[in-house]
Every structure is written in structure tokens, then in C-alpha cells.
UniProtKB/TrEMBL annotation, chain A:
Protein name listed in UniProt: RBR-type E3 ubiquitin transferase
Enzyme type, top EC level: transferase
Pathway note: Protein modification; protein ubiquitination
Pfam families reported for this sequence: Ariadne, IBR, IBR_2, zf-C3HC4
One Gene Ontology term from the biological process aspect of the record: protein ubiquitination
Domain RING-type: 114-326, 118-161
EC number(s) from the headed UniProt entry: 2.3.2.31
Residue intervals passing through the bilayer: none
UniProt-listed PROSITE patterns: TRIAD, ZF_RING_2
UniProtKB/TrEMBL annotation, chain B:
Keyword Lyase among UniProt keywords: no
Protein name: E2 ubiquitin-conjugating enzyme
Annotated Gene3D superfamilies: DNA helicase RuvA subunit, C-terminal domain, Ubiquitin Conjugating Enzyme
Classification of source organism: Eukaryota, Sar, Alveolata, Ciliophora, Postciliodesmatophora
InterPro entries from the UniProt entry: UBA, UBA-like_sf, UBC, UBQ-conjugating_AS, UBQ-conjugating_enzyme/RWD
Similarity comment text for this entry: Belongs to the ubiquitin-conjugating enzyme family.
Keyword tags: ATP-binding, Nucleotide-binding, Transferase, Ubl conjugation pathway
UBA domain segment(s): 154-194
Active-site residues (renumbered): 88 (glycyl thioester intermediate)
MF (Gene Ontology): ATP binding; ubiquitin conjugating enzyme activity
Domain UBC core: residue ranges: 1-150
Keyword Transferase applies: yes
Entry EC no(s): 2.3.2.23
Amino acid sequence: MSDSDEDWDIENEEDDFSQPIHIRQRSFTILTFTDMSYKLQSLVDEYSEMLEISKDESLILLNYYKWKPYKLQEDWFENESLIRIKAGILEQLNTDTTKTRGKKLGSLKLVKGTQGCCQICFESLAERDALMCGHVFCCNCWRSYIEDLIRQNSIVEATCPSFGCMLKIPESMVLKYAEEEMKEKYVKLKCCNFITMSQMYKFCPFPGCEYIAECSYMGTYEITCNCDFVFCFGCGEEAHRPTLCHTVKEWNTKNSAESENINWILANTKQCPSCRKPIEKNQGCNHMTCYREIGGCGYEFCWLCSGKWSEHSSTTGGYYKCNKYEELVAKNEALKCQETQRKSDKTELGKYMWYFERYNNHSKAQILAKDKQIGHIEKKMQQLHDIKQYPIGEVEFLKSAVEQVIRCRRVLKWTYVFGYYLGPGLEKNLFEHLQEKLEENTDHLHELVEKPLDEFLDVNNTDKSKFYHYKSDLTNYFQVTKQFFENLLDGIENGLTT
Amino acid sequence: METRRLQKEYEELTKLSASNSGVRANIIGPNMTHWKGIINGPDDTVYQGGTFIIDIIIPSEYPYKPPKMKFDTKIWHPNISSQTGAICLDILKDEWSPALTIRTALLSLQALLCNPEPDDPQDAVVASQYKNNRDLFNQTARAWTQEHAKSPEKILEEKIKRLCEMGFTEHVVRKALNDCAMDEAAALNLILSES
């Protein structure tokens, strides 16, 4: 290993889209902390045997090599003693570092009167201990030193307490002195360090989740954790197919720069297009009703374009046509004026806001569905089972449908980021078509799952045919939506026009 | 915190400062967490003849965490802030070892006065002057030493001298200063009121 060669981090691999999707789709495994402990130990054992060194030394070396064993192996056979010194398993004698240190400290010598005492507590060395460097300290001080390092989370890289000594503290020494509770913390720290350093593993980013994902692919790759959270292995963010990690990063940076303005506008300016009463969107789909019951005017409109809901029906052909920037503008005269204005402004902001609004809309719908609808539907499923004696298996479709809605909302959210960065052309047309189809079906499915199920809970009504009709309708839409969902992802990820 | 260790350190420091090396320290207050270190400017340096006071705060994790040190006395040095007295020295940060002591830390500060490290500066202005205009640096550092780093004895001597010049005897002046906690103006008032 050359001296300058300190950095052996693998360059961040670019998302390789030249390969077809089935090659990029490698499997992943969800592991527990205990699994990881075993994996760590078996690596330590393996290298201890291979390099004919103790397990203590093997662990220190692997830590020093940031758990990239191939590099360790290579360097080890090239210059073993240099690696031993660098990693801190062999004492460094009479080198440049100690010289400069000596100079800097002038005539610094240990206090004469304390020779024969422990250099930490200055008490007598009744019970003493030292690493192979021979720097002797009393056992009490070793204990305090090691436990303090564990408390400070810095035990993994810790060295002998003697000033300037670079010898690492081996695991056996830590286990010898740490009390039970500290031992546990040490094992945890060791394992965390291993997981963080090794590029094959990632903690599930969901707060409080302790599962670990193992995956050999380092780009954008979707992991579904055992806790049900779906995240990207490449960047550790929430899953963001079909958008790539670097695009997500760019988008998030842009959002944090502009979001305050946009959020304020979006959060405060939606009014009923007919009576101007302020309207808060508290359910997922785009079909808004200004409820008479709560003092509204009864007007029904589309949340996105504020147009009449009747114009969105399938009979007028404009069913849910709210996903295309240009089409929306062409369709609606008022918006067209706004659009000309925006274009004449020649600012990016208009375009950005358009995409952000739709991104944000799906994001909110996703959160609402996840936070409220799932719990709500589970309650209803239980009621259907308890009151109407439907077997649980018969009502499972409700939950599956909500889960599909959440997945669709998540993907749709990211398609607007994808679309924002996609230049015009044939590819964009095809993409927008797929997006529109998915959006249309998702909205419909979302509306269906939000339908009040109370009529099916009426004890006096023994006719179950209505429920089964609803079920087949929903199941049907579920299948259709799922198909569009997969078409969209496959289409984008395999290259839209190739 | 290791009060016993600090007690021992203090005893050791007092014992050794009597003989040589030009570093000593006093404990401020009752609980050993606040010290004032005193180092003499090393001979053959621009700091020669100066007495520098170091403020020392002992953290509760001592000796596993380094003591917090800064210069009370203003000093012109690349690794010490000319404004705040903050010190840039590795052993007071990452390189601290529990086998080091207040005394060894003060000694390494003294060594830092001998060997500035302008490539790892605390005060960029001073460091660039040190590198680019050594004569001006030496001149400034000497002037600062004379101006700010007077020893307590020297300050006392000057006070006595000034008061004696007003026509009082040295005996009276010393007594008055002693009675007034070395406050020159108060001592003068005392002498005047008594005479």
C-alpha cells in the first residue's frame, strides 16, 4: 500500500440503466442485529484463520480496513509489518511521529515522584495491566478508561491510554474490564460500526426500526423492510421508483430552497371555486365536494384544476385529465391565460410549481392513506367480520386495495419528479400517457376504498349481494391499477422508447 | 471526577514549581474545577520575561477528557487567538491522553511558545505575519509580552514605585497596598486618610 493510498472507498457507482431491469433486480435480505453479530464474527474468524493472526488482531484489522476485506488481504501479503503498525496491532518504534511529538512537548517527562504509580490515578500499582506496548496502568483505571470510551461511542478505534501510543485496545481487553451492561453496549457499537462501514448493509431508516437490509446492488434499489417501510438501498431515503437517487437528491435540495414559498401558497390558497369558502383536503382523491351540511354550496370540483367535477366524468371524455401540463392549459381558458402569463414571465418557477403541486398532492394523499385509511379499513374489516360474519379472508381485499393505493401514490409522487427533469419528446409523451393511466385508476381506486362501508354493516339487511358487487368492482379495479402500476415502472425502467 | 488525582497533581505541581521549569498553578474556588496556570515565557524567545496566565477548567470526565485551557494574558502567537486567548493544540483536543496532566499540558504550552506551528493556526492574521514578515512578528510579539505579560511581582513593584514617587515611604506604601488587596487607588486613599 502506498502512503497516499489512504482512501479505498469505492467510487459511488452511477445508476446503471444500460443494463436491463431483470439484471439490476437483485434480491435483498432483511436481517436482525443478532444475524449481523454472527456475520461479523464469522468474518473475524475467517480472516483470523486466513492471515494466521489472533481474533483480536483480525477484528482490529477489519475495522481499520472499514470492513473491505479484499483490500486488507491484498495489502497484508504485500507488507505485513507496515499494516500491523498502521492498523495499531504492532507498536510503532522510533518513528517520525514520535520525534515531532517529543519536540513539541519540549523536555516533557513524566512526573518523577510518580514513577511506580499508575499514570492515570497516581495511586500505587497494586493490580496492574498493560497491552503489549508495556504501558502499565492500574486495573481500576483500565476499567474507567474503557467504560468511558464505550460511553463516548469511541471504543472501536481506541488506543492505549499512554500519550502518543497508537496501539489499539483489543476486544479481549474490553471484555475483560467492561461490566455486563457496558459489554452489551460495546457489542452493539462494534456491530453498528460494521454495518455502517460495510457497503453491503443498511439500517432500515424508519425511526425505531432495528432491521438491517443486505443487498449487493448499490444504486437505486427498493427494499421492503420487515417493518413494512419501503426504502431505497442506494440513498437510504423513502423508496422513489421510478426516479433515480441523484434526481431525488436534486429535487429535495430544490424543494428545501423553494418549499417555504410554495408550501405557503399551496397550504393557504385553495378555495371552493364556486363559493370561495376555504377548503381543506382531508381525504385522498381529487373529487372535492363543498358539503352543504357544513355550510358549503354543494359544488363538486377537481382538487387539482378546480374545474367542475362533471367535466371530469368519462362521458365528457375528460376523465381525470389532470396530469398533463399542456393539455390542462389547452382545456381550460382561465388556466390558459395564467399559463401565458407564466410563460411570459419566463421563470422556471411556474413549471416547478406545477410539478411540485402534483408531487405534493400525491404525497399528502399517500400520507393520509397510510396514517388514516389503513387503520380505518382494518376497523371496518373487523366490523364486517363481527357484525355480518364475513370471514376475514373475504374482506382482506379492502386492505390490499388501500396498500396498493399507497404504493401508487408513492410512485405517482415520484413520477412528477421524473417528469420535471424529463425533456420533451416522444419519451415524455409515452411517459405522460402511462402516468395518466395510472393516475386515473389510482384516483378511482382511492375513491372506492374511501367509500363509507356502513350500508354493508346494517344488521337488518341480510342481502349480501351489494357487498359482493362492491367487492368484485374493487377487486377488478385493484387488478387493473396494479397492471398499470407495473406497466409504468417497467416502461420507465426498461427505457420508454427502446 | 478524580478529586484525589487532582489533589495529587496540585501537590506535585507545587513541589516541582519551587525548583524549576517555570510552570505553576493555583486552584480558584473550593471544588478544584477551576485553576489558573502560570507559565514563564521561555528564554531566547520573543516571550522571554513574560508571565502568562492560563485559565483552566477541569471537565467532570477528567482525566478521560482534556482540561479546557485558554490564555487570560493577551499574547501574539500563531496558535493562540489574539482576541480570545483560545489555544490550538492537539493534546488539548483529540490527542489528549489520561496519562497527561495539567502540568504536562502547561509544559506543552510552554513548548508551543518555543515552536509555533503556523501551518495549523488559531489566529490567521498572526500566522501569516509569522510566515511572511518575521521581523514585524517578533517586534509585535515582544511588545505584547512587555505590555500584557508582566509578572505580578513586577506589577507590584511598579505600583510601589509610583506611590513612593509621591513622597511616601516604601514601608507605608507596602502596608497600604497589602491592606487594599493591591489596589493602587484604594491604597493611595488609605495613605492620605491616615496621614
